[in-house]
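Suppose you are handed only these lines of text.
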Amino acid sequence: MRKTSFFRVSSATAGHAPRKRFGQNFLVDGAVIAAIVHAIDPRPGETLVEIGPGLGALTQPLLERLGALHVVEIDRDLIARLRARFTPEQVTIHAGDALAFDFAALAIHAPLRVAGNLPYNISTPLLFHLARFADRVRDMHFMLQKEVVERICAEAGSTAYGRLSVMLQSRFYVEALFDVSPESFDPPPKVRSAIVRLIPKPCAALPDVSAAALSTVVSIAFSQRRKMLRNTLKSLFTEADLAAQKIDPAARAEALTLDDFVRLAKILPGIKANYGSE
Ligand code: SAM
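From them, the structure of the protein bound to S-adenosylmethionine can be written out as follows.
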């Protein structure tokens, strides 16, 4: 991953006390902001929703490129500031929790583009929530804790590989773009950050199995990742079942590829194949 240099622009938080419970670390690094917008490459007329616009560090340059955009923000004080700064024609503000937001409602005329410097404390449930709308989405660009980006993009056999890797890679092509250092934010987070791009796979590339079946197998397999699959998966499969799918019963979950998990999910008792249903 490429590392960006930075120059600080201004104290974006002036007059707003950042709220830890909303994961508020505001971007104040002009070079990073420009690099993120460059990676997104927004074009006029596209439908883009920004999650957690905060004080508008990304919203403003996105608006300049798009002409109009949607944002989802939970903090009432920040919503009031956004309302004062942008007209409703420029920025449609959806006040509320992104975890409960119906992203499909914005993808009526064209596939939706999604972006944001996400609140790190809810990033995993948010990514799973967003995955449900993958068939309405063109792409997603997010700032996340670097460790989470590594988990999203991890390959089988690595220590970062787990449920998040398998479930998101089953639905998206994933790509880690660049790292962002804590000094690029105000206040600086305790962790390093990184930008990730997720592009939904076309139907033909999706695994021929339900997300629910895949999720069941993957969650149980990784629930005790140090244990052998013959033990972790014994409530679902016999050793003979595993062997029939060319899975070594003595292997651990992190050794299995997405294809291995898909083969197992297909023989999960009582769940029908069909990726879209959950
Ligand atoms: N985009 C701004 C920036 O880059 O400076 C702010 C990013 S800050 C890391 C995360 C933002 O997400 C904050 O504005 C916070 O209030 C908002 N937020 C936190 N939890 C949220 C939720 N559940 N739904 C929507 N927005 C949320």
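What can we learn from it? Residues 22-27, 51-55, 57-58, 72-75, 78, 97-99, 117, 119, 122 surround S-adenosylmethionine (CB under 6 Å). Residues 243 and 249 are 7 Å apart (CA to CA).
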